[in-house]
Amino acid sequence: MSRAGFLWDSLSNNTGDQAVGLTLMRLARRAGMQGLEPVSIGESLAERYELLVIGGGELLHPPGHPFYDLFRVPGEHVLNTVGTYGEVEASYLSSYRLITVRSAADRDNLRGLAREARVAPCLSVLFGEIAEDRPVMMGQDPLLLHLHAGVFLPGTASALVSLLRRLEPPVAMLPFTHHNCDGALQAVLAAAAGLPAPLEVAGPDQAFAAIRRARAVIVTSLHAAIFAYVAGVPFLAMPYSPKVRHFLAERGLERRLLPDIQRLPEKLHLLTAGSVDWQSKLATDVAAARATATEILGLVEETLARPDGSRVGLVHWTEPTHPEQAHAQAIGRHADYGRRMAQVASDELAGRHAWRRSIASAARILARSFPAIRRLGWARALWRRWTGAYGI
Q1: Which of 60, 208, 239, 372 has CB 3.0 to 4.6 Å from 84, enough for a Cys bridge?
Q2: What is the 3-state secondary structure (H, E, C) of the chain?
Q3: What is the C-alpha separation between 139 and 169, in angstroms, rounded?
């Protein structure tokens, strides 16, 4: 029997990449297909698989990347609803048996491809059908916020904390892009705003369960937005990356974009249950994703039925060496940046509190030195302001 492999970013602890993998593998198992093998990144692909299902996720990058070149495999393979990182040379895809990308913008980024690339939604729009029940410890009907370092601007920590304090409770932080160390920044902001510690969420099943139980969510991840879209939960999405904007724009949901979190008060009406109006769009996406999944699994089944040694899909190519090491380095940079921004936020907030403590100390000294001034009307008002604001 020939072999079929499933190749995606299985190394990442990003919830979106994990959801991509779980969705296709669970669909295959539910179809009774045991022969689709998850590819172990780092093993040699040369002459190993007659068919590779590659993606989804943002896997198509310009040639020359020490990790993402791994996904530029020539041959008669399948491209599964992938995203692109800018314009990419794609002539090698001409021999593929099926080419699907997740947005029209991604299709437009393919260069040198002389055949059709079909636009189909990421198969994770089917996650509601394949999710396993993994409860999360959380309050009832919270507003969930997923923020990461990519949308945090140094110098804005105090304003952000002030905004968080004004939100109607309960409010909780949702780590989702763990590779960004988003929980570190969220913990700093939550502590300063008097919110509970970020939720303890491990994997897509728990993340989906948390979003499904929320009254609304504010996210900075494409797949967090997809989860809310699938669950029918009101959401706003910060377009830190073009892929977030593309997903919403192609569904007529641009009003749910939140380019600046300080504009949140203007969009709170979109976080009410009555604002959910995309049921027909979701039904269309689900039908398209089911059809794509059925077609992909049909090609896998056809490949697996071939006699062993029927190697029509194999083409010799130069594989990247040690892609797992390149991935670890890239993820390490993301994590370092996330930790640095968490420290920046912490330092900013600590500086603010230090300033408050200095004023409070000065107020105490002033009161001890000149007790009579507290009898003056203007001084009494100033005193109340100091003592009320700074906890004296």
Answers
A1: 60
A2: CCCEEEECCCCCCEHHHHHHHHHHHHHHHHCCCCCEEECCECECCCCCCCEEEECCEEEECCCCCCCHHHHCCCCCCEEEEEEECCCEECHHHHHCCEEEECCHHHHHCEECCCCCCEECCCHHHHHHHHCCCCCCCCCCCCEEECCCHHHCCCCCHHHHHHHHHHCCCCEEECCCEHHHCHHHHHHHHHHHHCCCCCCCCCHHHHHHHHHHHCCEEEECCHHHHHHHHHHCCCEEECCCCHHHHHHHHCCCCHHHECCCHHHHHHHHHHHCHHHCCCHHHHHHHHHHHHHHHHHHHHHHHHHHCCCCCCCCCCCCCCCCCCHHHHHHHHHHHHHHHHHHHHHHHHHHHHHHHHHHHHHHHHHHHHHHHCHHHHHCHHHHHHHHHHHHHHCC
A3: 10
Rounded to an integer, what distance in angstroms lies between the CA atom of residue 223 and that of residue 95?
30
Contact 62, 87 (CB under 8 A): yes
pTM over the 0.70 mark: yes
Question: CA 243, 244, 246, 251 torsion: positive or negative?
Answer: positive
- Tell me, what amino acid is at 269? H
> Tell me, what amino acid is at 93?
L
Residue-wise pLDDT tens digits, 199-239: 999 999 999 999 999 999 999 999 999 999 999 999 999 99
Tokens of 234: 């009101």
d(CA 244, CA 238) in angstroms, rounded, equals 8
Number of neighbours of residue 370 by Cβ within 10 angstroms: 11
Q: Which residue has the tokens 């604001």?
A: 389
- For residues 115 and 117, give the distance between their C-alpha atoms in angstroms, rounded to a whole number: 7
